[in-house]
Amino acid sequence: MITGIFETHLNVTDLERSHHFYETVLGLPHAYMQKERGNSFYWIGGKGNAMLGLWQKKPSEVKRQHFAFHVSLEDMKHAVAHLENKGIKTQNFLDDDIGELYVFGWMPAVSVYFTDPDGHSLEFIAMLQDEAKPELGMVPWSQWEEMQEKIV
What we know:
One of its GO terms (molecular function) is metal ion binding. The protein has 3 helices and 9 strands; from the N terminus they run E-H-E-E-E-E-H-E-E-E-E-H.
C-alpha cells in the first residue's frame, strides 16, 4: 500500500533564511508560500513527486531533525564540491573532516552530511548498484570501488 513518503515538515526559526537555503543553495523548486501562516513548500524530485514544508516557529519549538535527499551517483561525485562552493560545511558519516565519503555496505549507498541554517542534519545519499556486503560495515568509497573493480 505505501509506496513512498510524499511530504515531511521542518520547523525553522527564520523562514526567509531557510527559503534561501532550500531554494537557492540546494536548488529545490519552490511550490507555495503562505507568509501569513509562516510556511513554505518545495518540490522534491519534480512537481507532484514529494514535498518539503518549512514552518516558522519560535526557537524553543525547533527540534533538530534528520532526513536524507536521494541523489544520483553522478551528482554524489560532485556533491561535496557543490556544497562547499555554496559555503556549506560537509562531513562524512564519522563526523570527521570530509577527507573521504563512506559506503554503508548493507545498502550499499554512499552519503555526505551537512546542516541547514537551523542545524537540521541533512544528507545526500546515492544508492549503489553493487551487491550489498553487510559484513563490511562501512568502508571508504575508494576502497569500495577498488573491491568492485576486482569483482568485475
